[in-house]
Automatic annotation (TrEMBL):
Record lineage: Bacteria, Bacillati, Actinomycetota, Actinomycetes, Pseudonocardiales
Keyword Transcription carried by entry: yes
Keyword Transmembrane among record annotations: no
Pfam families associated with the record: HTH_11, WCX, WYL
Name the UniProt record assigns to this protein: DNA-binding transcriptional regulator YafY
Keyword tags: DNA-binding, Transcription, Transcription regulation
Region called Disordered, residue ranges: 1-26
Species of provenance: Saccharopolyspora antimicrobica
Gene3D superfamilies: Winged helix-like DNA-binding domain superfamily/Winged helix DNA-binding domain
Molecular functions per Gene Ontology: DNA binding; DNA-binding transcription factor activity
HTH deoR-type domain boundaries: 31-90
Length: 349
């Protein structure tokens, strides 16, 4: 075998190669831009490995470590773990650090704050106004006009008709969904009794003033739907879980199906002389799945509620269609509906 005449790299060539790589990194992002990009990545996901961050930023792992240290010096609580499963995460700190929002996110947050007072989350109205004032103060000119347009055209109306949910409950549940963390709580059932539960949360779904938690219950080996206003003593346990595949197209679809199949105190079948599609458009967002066509110009609606007042609202909504319909229900329910509707008619004279 012929001896190799290839010269080993000397210190100068190694330094040149390192300098070239560093210049390539500098050309990709300036230091401030790279730090902002790193911060944005850390805010978008719970945890990142050093290799993933280096790949996203197109820098070396050593540069990532230096930039993380710079963020810490600026007050951002970036924690790190070593080993094969190690990585970086933006931890919670004593003070709230600045958040990075793109244009659409900033406008979406402003719009959400504007309408928060009319929602079903308790104790959030005044906080929403303060947060909106702070946001508008720092918005760039190109976005301030967009937010002002939404603000000028929006008049929130506080509605307290439905169940109220504590903001802290929603925040804890949402974080557990994101971080794949087991939740424990006492769930108050329809009869008023409470039952301890430990679940793997998947999603929160908001429908016309009501919040629902979609989660897998390992003890029952099945998926469950929970009313968020009935979650008491909600606690994130710190225990992680591997996500499971939801047996539906999405969380909203699962919620519609689970509510349609649930047992109710009041049930009825309503035959309507109108096309199924036109009836679906006039019903509560969770009801269209209960409408089935019985002909080209007729359909049937399966209704179920625990509240007589809510049941009466569904009947009233069907009445506004201007189509003939008949209610097939128990004699007790029919009599209660007649009494409720009669009181409404008597009130208008």
């Amino acid at each position: 075998m012929q001896p190799s005449h290839e010269k080993p790299p000397n210190a100068r060539s190694t330094r040149n190669a390192t300098t070239t790589a560093q210049r390539g990194e500098a050309a990709q992002y300036t230091l401030p831009a790279r730090l902002l990009r790193l911060l944005s990545l850390l805010q978008s996901r719970r945890e990142w490995s050093g290799a993933e961050l280096a790949d996203r930023l197109e820098v070396t792992g050593r540069t990532v470590r230096r930039d993380v240290e710079r963020l810490r010096e600026l007050g951002y609580p970036v924690s790190s773990t070593t080993g094969t499963a190690g990585g970086y995460r933006l931890a919670s700190g004593k003070n709230l650090p600045p958040l990075l929002l793109d244009d659409d996110e900033a406008v979406a947050v402003a719009a959400g704050l504007l309408t928060a007072a009319s929602g079903s989350v308790t104790g959030i109205e005044e906080s929403s106004i303060r947060a909106l004032a702070k946001l508008e103060q720092v918005l760039p000119a190109r976005l301030r006009s967009r937010v002002a347009a939404v603000s000028g055209a929006t008049v929130p109306m506080v509605v307290r008709d439905g169940p109220q949910v504590d903001a802290a409950t929603l925040a804890t549940a949402a974080a557990a969904c994101r971080d794949r963390e087991v939740l424990s709580f006492d769930y108050v059932k329809r009869d008023g009794t409470a039952q301890p539960r430990r679940v793997e949360p998947h999603s929160l779904v908001a429908v016309v003033g009501r919040w629902y938690l979609i989660a897998f219950d390992p003890e029952r080996d099945d998926w469950r739907t929970f009313r968020a206003d009935r979650l008491h003593g909600l606690l994130a346990t710190g225990r992680r879980f591997e996500p499971r595949e939801l047996p539906a197209a999405d969380a909203a679809d699962y919620l519609r199906r689970s509510i349609a199949d649930a047992p109710y105190r009041y049930t009825a079948r309503v035959a309507v002389r109108a096309p199924a599609e036109s009836v679906r458009e006039h019903l509560h967002p969770l009801l269209p799945g209960r409408v089935s066509a019985t002909g080209a110009d007729s359909c049937a609606v399966e209704l179920g509620e625990d509240s007589l007042s809510q049941f009466t609202r569904h009947i009233t909504a069907l009445a506004t269609l201007g189509a003939e319909f008949t209610v097939e229900a128990s004699d007790e329910l029919r009599e209660q509906l007649r009494a409720a509707l009669r009181r409404g008619l008597d009130a208008v004279g």
